[in-house]
Amino acid sequence: MLMIGKLALLFLILLGSIQAGTVKEDTEFVIHAVMGPEVALEFERYELELAIKSELENRFKQRFYGDEVYRWQISRGDSLLGTALLDNVMGKAMPITILVIFDPEGMILGTDVIRYREAIGGEVSNPRWQKQFTGLSTETLLEKDRRIDGITGATISVRSVHRGILKLAGLHAYMQQKQPYLGALK
Amino acid sequence: MKMFKCLSIVLTLFASTLIASDDLLEESFFEAKTTLGGYGELHFNQSSISNADSKKSLDFHRFVMFYSHAWTPEWSFKAELELEHNFVSDGEGELELEQAYINYQRSTQLGVQVGVVLPSVGLLNEYHEPPLFFSVERPDYAKYIVPTTWFGNGVSVYGRNQIIDYKITWMEGLDGTDISHKNGIRSARMKGYKSNADQLLLNARINYVGSPGVKFGVSWSGTKAMGDELKSDIPLNLIEFHGQINKANFISSFEYGQISYAETSLQKSEGYYVDVGYNLASFLGTPADLVPWFRLSDYNTATETLAGGDEEKEHHYTIWKIGLSYRPIPEIALKVDYGVKTNELSGVDETLFNLGAGYMF
């Protein structure tokens, strides 16, 4: 019993020494990992217009966390390579911070869970689960009966993250001036 | 006493590692919030033995309210209050505070819960919302070998990375005077009621979670279940293995566990179940899940006793079940199952038919 206690103690001290970065640092780390270390990032708070906010919330049955989302424009030289959007979705009780990176045409280049704050259901952070969204166009992503892989015991967080990704794809489509396309999805 | 010392060292060191976040983005990304959730299930149960009249019942088995408040991204409180069988009076029904803890999540790798906590034993003790398992009732294994829902006053430390997920719990122990051949450790749970803290229970669990839709793990729980003037303390160890697969429409769960006891007539409890189901949703072209499934199970709360003989057969059951689980949305399940439970000693077959409707949010 004492031996187990000592081992547990050592384990916890090792874990305690791991320091996480800030949300912004972690987000930019992920963007660089996906887009390359040399890309330039321009960060801004993107204010949501009330009309499009309501439309997207109704369409995807999920609220935005606030009146703004965080946006990074990703470029190399003069060319825009993509856009990264960061927002919170609600898990069972705590917000989950998700990042979706799009190319200018709306194809998903990568997704990531930047912060998972619940004790359970954290499997949605797994890159192998996230990978199923990479390479999908907004059109494919929004196909009506498209199924996503389940995760044992994580029903609420799976549904929440999935809807969050769809919602950000809808927002990205709007940002790219594809409003008529969004309307056609209804 | 050694366990207390160890626990206090862990908590002291843990507290010394706390560092306040000064990141504006983090702050602006969070607001203090209270959330409500819950789950519940209505059951119709019918059982019959041989040609005798069948027993039928309608039971709103569980009504659970989940309540949570988050002060900061790190500090939150979570609670679950459960009403069982829709009624509490004169020893009938139960009102239980199944979870009520302050949660500090320092990082994904390290969090702490203090209060009424759940030891991590098997698949269902922490994840038991009705849409998450096939049968109308929880498997008998999750009642007699792992006594779900097993909760108590204590401290849990947990965390995860991309490959493993762990949880260690120190909590109230068990009342050895209520350990029995018939129920194993089920009646020995103290359920947080003025728990005697002379002997604590240590529980440690590790899961492999590296592949989405796949989970395998093992846990160990040990304590000295407390006796009284007439009965000595009972040292016991519960070791169990569990796994779950949800891939390519194929859904399967298995659990195996055994409890070894010393200094009592009961020496060992043991059991398992295996569930296999297949989700027909993609064939039907619907987003709803429709899963036919079957279960094989065997458990014996008195696999080994000092006296042996019929004592080791009296509480031995083998079970088979088939069923259908329909989930129009992932949070709602409508279920039907049918099966037979056979006792080794009497050879009696009990036929079981159940209907259920459950939800979670």
Distance between the termini of chain A: 61 Å
Uncertain regions spanning at least 5 consecutive residues of chain B: 16-22
The neighbouring-strand order within the major sheet of chain A is: 1-2-3-4-5
What class do helices, strands and sheet pairing of chain B give? mainly beta
Protein topology:
The complex is a heterodimer of chains A (about 190) and B (about 350).
Chain A: H1 2-16, H2 23-35, E1 40-47, H3 50-60, E2 68-76, E3 79-90, E4 95-102, E5 108-116, H4 127-130, H5 138-141, H6 155-175, H7 179-184
Antiparallel strand pairs in A: 1-2, 2-3, 3-4, 4-5
Helix pairs in contact in A: 3-6
Chain B: H1 2-16, H2 24-28, E1 33-49, E2 55-70, E3 75-89, E4 92-107, E5 110-117, H3 141-144, E6 152-160, E7 164-172, E8 200-208, E9 214-225, E10 234-247, E11 250-261, E12 266-278, H4 281-284, E13 289-305, E14 316-327, E15 332-343, E16 349-360
Brief account:
The complex is a heterodimer of chains A (186) and B (361). Chain A is α+β, with helices and mostly antiparallel strands and 186 residues long.
